[in-house]
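in:
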């Protein structure tokens, strides 16, 4: 079985910018590249799980999300780092348009994408972690017995007042990695 770190994307890996999809707007959070590289070097599967409601709302396409993920991989490759997989939910139950307006099991805080990734990568949840800047990023991890960390980047400073007792707080993705390695 494999150990993994499940990462939220916006506000955790990259600077939070509402409905980010343009490559020119992408910016890693401080220490994120180094953190991902350390996770790779320590044999953690690095798996991104992200809600992409901008697709549901019609702001951008799934192809735009995929292009941004390809760009992220190219940037990480320059530093001998990589993300093992990107999973994202393009749905929204209220604000979705057309086929994207639905109540699904993949939109966090539901755990459908976590369950899929756990199965796809044969993940040992007891040796794994989740990191995000919103409680909704971490609830599905906690529901699957994955140790969870709320970062103070993105929305983390606003979310911390509602933190659950089974979640830890850390400054950013890099500080999380230094705590577990």
């Amino acid at each position: 079985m494999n150990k993994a770190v499940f990462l939220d994307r916006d506000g955790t890996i990259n600077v939070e910018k509402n409905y980010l999809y343009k490559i020119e707007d992408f910016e890693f959070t401080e220490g994120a590249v180094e953190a991902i590289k350390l996770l790779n070097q320590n044999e953690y599967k690095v798996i991104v799980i992200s809600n992409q409601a901008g697709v549901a709302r019609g702001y951008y396409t799934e192809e735009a999300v995929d292009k941004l993920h390809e760009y992220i991989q190219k940037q990480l490759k320059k530093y001998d780092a990589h993300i093992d997989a990107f999973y994202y939910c393009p749905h929204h139950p209220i604000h979705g348009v057309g086929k994207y307006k639905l109540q699904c099991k993949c939109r966090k805080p539901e755990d459908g994408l976590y369950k899929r990734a756990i199965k796809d990568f044969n993940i040992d949840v007891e040796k794994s972690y989740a990191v995000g800047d919103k409680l909704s990023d971490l609830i599905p991890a906690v529901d699957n017995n994955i140790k969870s960390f709320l970062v103070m980047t993105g929305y983390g400073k606003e979310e911390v007042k509602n933190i659950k007792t089974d979640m830890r707080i850390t400054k950013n993705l890099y500080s999380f990695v230094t705590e577990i390695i």
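note: The first strand starts at residue 3 and ends at 7.
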